[in-house]
Amino acid sequence: MYRQKSFDSESPTLYLVATPIGNLKEMTPRAVEIMQQVEYIAAEDTRNTIKLLNHFEIKAKLVSHHEHNLRQSIPHLIHLMEEGNDLVLVSDAGYPAISDPGYELVQEAICHQLNVVPISGANACLDALVVSGIAPQPFTFFGFLDHQDRLKRRQLEKYRYHQETMVFYESPYRIEKTLKMMLEIWGDREMALCRELTKRHEEIIRGRVSEILTIAGELKGEMVIVISGSQEEAKTEEEEYTLSVAEQVEAYIQSGMSSRDAIKQVSQERHLNKNEVYQTYLNERKEKEKCLS
């Protein structure tokens, strides 16, 4: 056990500073003061952070810290702190460690019994949640869904019966496809799509998934999805599937699908390997043929 006395300690401190998500006035006086006092600031993108430092006349030295250089940057930053330096960690926008680099450095700082202190500020997840009109608690924040459609579909299937309000970040380039998948897998739920939060073109769009989907393709900017949780209890495998794997394949074939497409469809629905579905179907067909002969 290690007890951290944040305001009564001589140990070097890692400050997690929330930076503006769209409006420079979101930068708190305390955040500016801390950043003006430290020698080093670790930043996800130094080109982006230098603009913030110049605006607030902050002279600290910038150190690059992002997901592609963690092995090099973490030991370096811990070494700087062990030499007696306080350190600020920022991301491009909002809180570091929330869908941005930071967690690994925090863990390492804790292992070295260095102080870790939050400096409050803007957070897109909470901003979207409180204005969404969807029940704010309990809620679960998932960050970004996977970029690959196959893996994204698997994630959405996994969260299908999640009963808490859910919050996701999404890119304007993927928002239409993501909402289509949500509608297909989860049904037509109440949601809010919050874009360009705290910026000049901030917009909160509330409605059902099907309604927002009609305009999703024309929307631009950084987006937060707030969507209501499931009203259904999770079903057991027996309740979910009244047919066996082989029977389900056969049903799709009878409906006009090719055997190849039927096997692919069943493997996706049940999250099974295609070869496994094929082998199960083949074995059951052989058993039936034996019985008939």
Outline the structure in words.
The model has no long low-confidence stretch (mean pLDDT about 90). β6, α6 (about 150-160) and β7 (about 165-170) form a beta-alpha-beta unit. The protein is about 40% helix and about 15% strand. The strands form two sheets. Strands 3-2-4-1-5 form a five-stranded parallel sheet, with helices on both faces. A five-stranded mixed sheet has the order 6-7-10-8-9. α3 (about 70-80) crosses α4. The chain is elongated. It has three domains: about 15-120, Tetrapyrrole methylase, N-terminal domain (Cobalt-precorrin-4 Transmethylase, domain 1, 3-Layer(aba) Sandwich), CATH 3.40.1010; about 125-225, Methyltransferase, Cobalt-precorrin-4 Transmethylase, Domain 2 (2-Layer Sandwich), CATH 3.30.950.10; about 235-290. It has twelve helices and ten strands. The longest helix has 19 residues, at about 275-290. It is α/β, with parallel strands linked by helices and about 290 residues long. Its EC number is 2.1.1.198. This is Ribosomal RNA small subunit methyltransferase I. Pfam families: TP_methylase (PF00590). It comes from Candidatus Fimiplasma intestinipullorum.
Measure the end-to-end span: 71 Å
Which structural class matches the secondary elements? alpha/beta
**Overall tally of domains:** 3
- CATH homologous superfamily identity of the largest domain: Tetrapyrrole methylase, N-terminal domain
CATH class of the largest domain, named Alpha Beta
Q: How many strands appear in the DSSP assignment?
A: 10
Q: Main sheet?
A: 5 strands, parallel
Looking across the biggest beta sheet, what order are the strands in? 3-2-4-1-5
Element pattern in H and E: EHEHEHEHEHEHEHEEHEHHHH
Shape descriptor: elongated
Question: Spans of 5+ residues with little confidence (pLDDT < 50)?
Answer: none
Beta-strand residue fraction: 15-25%
On the 0 to 100 scale, the average pLDDT is 90
- Radius of gyration (CA) equals 25 Å
Helix content: 40-55%
CATH architecture of the largest domain: 3-Layer(aba) Sandwich
Look up the CATH topology of the largest domain: Cobalt-precorrin-4 Transmethylase, domain 1
